[in-house]
Amino acid sequence: MKKVYRSGSYGSFGGGGSRFGGASVSKWMLVILVVVFLVDVIGRGSSEGRLSVYFSMKRGDLLEIWRWGSYPLVNVNLGDWLFTLIAFFVFGPMAERSLGSRRFGVMLVMTTLVGAIVYALLSSGSVVPLSGAGGLAMALLVVVALRYPDQKVRLLLPPVTLSLKTLGYGLIGLLVVMSIAQRADPAESLAHLSGVGVGFLCLKNLSWLDVGVGSIGKKGVGSDVGVQKRKVAKTGGRMRARTELNMKVSKSEAEVNRILDKVSEEGIGNLSDDEREILKFASKK
Questions:
Q1: Is the pLDDT of residue 170 over 60?
Q2: Cα–Cα distance between 130 and 137 in angstroms, integer?
């Protein structure tokens, strides 16, 4: 059977060994965060940075709607920025492959908007602007901890081996304690911590993430079979054996394509055992 690999459409069955194979949203988030941070902090025009002044979320600027979606991209705190980069580099691809790029992107948007809403509701006396993607990082940690609870990772410092569930929940707990201890403004802290709740609820209600999902990628194999049957009727019995063979090949390829589309939309974690076996068999052809 002809190989039907699609670059970036599935996890362990392709991707060319790249960490970001099938995780384009995570890759572009990393690029954007790095570029925006460098532009923001190099040659600062103020203590907040050049871009943070216009794109972070502030109590007095809530009517400037673009700030509700742009605040995660600007961050003047080096520690928070580095943590976000590490989260998207290490956990982003895992979470994206598990959910599928479409659902993963929708989750990031929902987390951003919920954080903005929490800040808007609680920031009546706030003087600290909302910026940074801390809420998005927390949502990633929740998804990874729940999707891959028993997968082991070895840390460099300290040199210990932990399950992703232990690591994820440990980091979330540490961030909660640090937010309470170090941040004097509850509106900003709670806005970022809301990412924990959004990640958990989205994972338990995946249908919330199916925004814009229609019949794309749902093509069955009936059309291919129908075409082959019409060919049989036209050519007669002489080509029957060849036509039946072509039908089987077309059906197999269409089935693999359907499974790859499902992985792209819903994530590899939603495949059945039979679908996993079909992909495994196809990858060896």
A1: yes
A2: 15
Between CA 17 and CA 19 the distance in angstroms is 6
Average the pLDDT over 135-150 and give the result: 90
pTM of the model: 0.66
The span from the CA of 196 to the CA of 200, in Å, is 6
Q: Are strands 152-154 and 161-163 parallel, antiparallel or unpaired?
A: antiparallel
CATH class of 24-209: mainly alpha
Chain segment 95-119, per-residue pLDDT in tens: 998 898 999 999 999 999 999 999 9
φ, ψ for residue 151, nearest 5 deg: -70, 135
Q: Where are the domains of the chain?
A: 24-209, 222-283
Contacts of 63 (CB under 8 A, 6+ apart): none
| Collapsed DSSP state (helix, strand, coil) of residue 230 | helix
Residue-averaged pLDDT of the chain: 75
Residue showing tokens 């792209």:
264
Q: DSSP labels for 137-192?
A: HHHHHHHHHHHSTT-EEE-SSS--EEEHHHHHHHHHHHHHHHHHHH-S-HHHHHHH
Cβ atoms 39, 51 nearer than 8 A? yes
What is the C-alpha separation between 221 and 5, in angstroms, rounded? 18
Backbone angles phi, psi at 237, to 5 degrees: -75, -15
Residue type, 60: G
Q: How many C-beta atoms lie closer than 10 Å to residue 10's C-beta?
A: 24
| pLDDT value at residue 17 | 52
Residue 130's DSSP bridge partners are 57
